[in-house]
Structures are given as structure tokens and as C-alpha cells.
Amino acid sequence: MSQRQAPFNVAVGDTLPVLELPAINRTTLALFAGASGDHNQIHIDTDYARKAGMPDVFAHGMLSMAYLGRLLTQWVDQRQIRSFGVRFTGITHLGHKITCSGRVVERFEADGEQRVKLEIETRNQYGDTKIVGDAVIAL
Questions:
Q1: pLDDT for position 1
Q2: Which residues form the MaoC-like domain (predicted)?
Q3: CA–centroid distance for 113 within its chain
Q4: Mean of pLDDT values over 38-43
Q5: Could you give the angle at which helices 26-36 and 61-75 cross, rounded to 10 degrees?
Q6: Could you tell me if 67 and 122 are in contact, meaning their C-beta atoms sit under 8 angstroms apart?
Q7: E strands along 1-139, which residues?
Q8: What's the whole-model pTM score?
């Protein structure tokens, strides 16, 4: 297995390679429900979602967080992640094409390690932010 490692010369302002995902569809939601064990009907049952006042089912928030996790682990080995948190800011509907991005906002030393703090987010194809968060990565 190849090891991904952020270059030691990472600087504030650097950006991570963008991760673009295919449009959210019902199959993705069903597969994520099965993989995660989150079978909340609002994500998989159109009738239930409509009774709840939504136009249709929509993505699990944790699916988008998982996409951000993929953004991070395509940049570094998962063992370098020291923290990872998000705040959900919008609903990801069927048909949304999610793009994950991140940028270095701080470089510091902690527990004898060089680390960087990242701001990370997901946006749909219309530029609407769906999740914002941060992560700390050991270099």
C-alpha cells in the first residue's frame, strides 16, 4: 500500500487537491444506509420525506462528512489525522454534485509534531456550501 504524506513544506494558504463526486442518487443513498446502518426513512423513502415536508429524499449528513474524510485521506495517510469535525449548513439533495475542498489556515507544533490546521467544506454545483469543518493533520 502506498503511503500518502503531506509534504513537510506545506504553507498557510496551500490548498488540497479538490475532490469532485458524481451526482447524489437514490442508489448512493441506499448503499450508504446499508453501509452506515443509518436507515432513517427521510433518506430512503420518498413518501416519508414528502410527509415530512421535503420535496424528496436527501443525503445523509454523514455521507458528505465521509466525502470530506476521503478528501483528507487522499492527501495524507489516515494515521496523520489528529482531529476532524464539521458543521452541517445545508441539505444535499438528489442530483447535487458535491465538491470537497480544503486549505491550510495554520501551521504549528504540538506534542512534538509539526501540524497544520485545515478549513474544509463541501459545495454543490451551484456553489452552495453544505458542510464546513476543520481538521488537524500531522506532517
A1: 42
A2: 24-117
A3: 25
A4: 94
A5: 80
A6: yes
A7: 19-23, 81-88, 97-110, 113-123, 129-138
A8: 0.91
